[in-house]
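so i finally got all the pieces together for this one. its three components total, 504 residues if u count the protein bits. some of the lines might not be protein, just check the labels. i wanna see the whole assembly predicted at once instead of chain by chain like last time, that was a mess tbh
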Amino acid sequence: MACATGVEIPAGERRSGYEFMSRETRAMQDDDVTNPGMLWVLDGEALWNRKDGSAVRACADCHGDARASMKGVAARHPAWDAASGRPVNLEQRINACRTARQQAAALAYESRDLLALSAFVALQSRGMPAAVAIDARTRPYRDAGRDTFIRRQGQLNLACAQCHDERWGKKLAGSAIPQAHPTGYPLYRLEWQSLGSLQRRLRNCMIGMRAEPYAYGAPEFVDLELYLMWRARGMPLEAPAVRP
Amino acid sequence: MTSRRDFLIAAAGAAGGIGLATVSRPARATPAAMQDAIRKVTGGAPLRSGRVKLDVPPLIDNGNSVPLAVAVESPMTPSDYVKAIHVFTERNPLPNVVSVHLGPRAGRARLATRVRLADTQTVLAIAELSDGSYWTDSVQVVVTLSACLEEVQI
Amino acid sequence: MARAVVNVPAKVKRGEIFEIKTLVQHAMETGFRRTQLGEVIPRDIIRQFVCTYNGVEIYRAELHPAISANPLLTFSTIATESGTIAATWTGDKGFSVTQSARISVV
């Protein structure tokens, strides 16, 4: 099966999806008062301080003030997790903490609480450069993610790279094709009229390619997230971003 | 007549189906329905142009959230002020968008919000003044179809 | 509980016009969408917004399904005295949220 070339966008040409948006949509992201994503952040802050699970423990009981303890955490994820022996994304890290430390039930992907907590944690890395650690343990997973990115798939026989490496800046119907950097998640998408995770967006893309999307939390998605974060290395995080 | 949105859906389908084909097409308001809705507010009083400035970006990223602002020239004094501002659309499923009621305490006769626009269409704002006069402004907005639609998630 | 934000400047001069920005978490389900199985999703929207300044109404809005999810309303008022700006959103299925902000008039 033919592959897209997978030639990386040079660092100097990397553009956040923000730069492809209209002035009005940028303004919506720029003003915390009118950015609807901040409503989820407020929820997340309340959850951070709420005791939960049979351990009757709040995130704050171990981690203290998130402004200090969670600074840079979202910028480093997906990150190696010794317990599961593979990289985990931010949502999985939050859920691991819930089940092991709070002895609470894991939160479902796209549930209001998981979006709220991940938005609150991700906000603490706003402006910090994406910096996932690629080493002997994580490299194979990043490479697997890159394979997914450049592999043609679905009934349309398209690879992610064909749009986002090779045709960014062009138009698909009325919309600009961005470079697919994951630096704003979870983000408020106007099409969703809600906050959503990176995996929701990736599932959208796969459905658009008429491929069978992986399940939420699938290792293939986490590998792809790792590749995308590595591909966006150095770019500032902007969660909760706003996108069309 | 084929609207731009219909055309883009058809074109996207022909190009290989980016975007789902299950976009529902509810009955939409018509210019006549909008005129009816306007009559309910004005009681048939004449609409004058001027004094009202309706601001909607001419080309927008997504019809689900379009910034809309209305500003009305008025001294906003107890004897001369704007009582209400109404916004209507011609081709949304319903003609009414929002009505706000204010008075001299507002200082400025302004409204800013975000609205849904189902299609390329005319958006119209009406200001109701304390002297019983009605003033209006309208704009044409081009709504393009998002490339990657998603099924409704409940 | 739905989150809501009422944003005003912390301090304003008496007689000055200041801006009030309000935002509330609500899907504003239009009643025109259908599920993948073709069933209409019932309308569930905020119908009314009222803003008071020390208990006196200064701004009221009637909302329709064309207002975007998580409604934003921005407007202004004249600073008269220190006190509370309170916003209340009410709607379908008994929805009612009130959020307020303190304003200090100097």
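Chain A has a mean pLDDT of 95.
The two ends of chain A are 33 Å apart (CA to CA).
anyway lmk what u think
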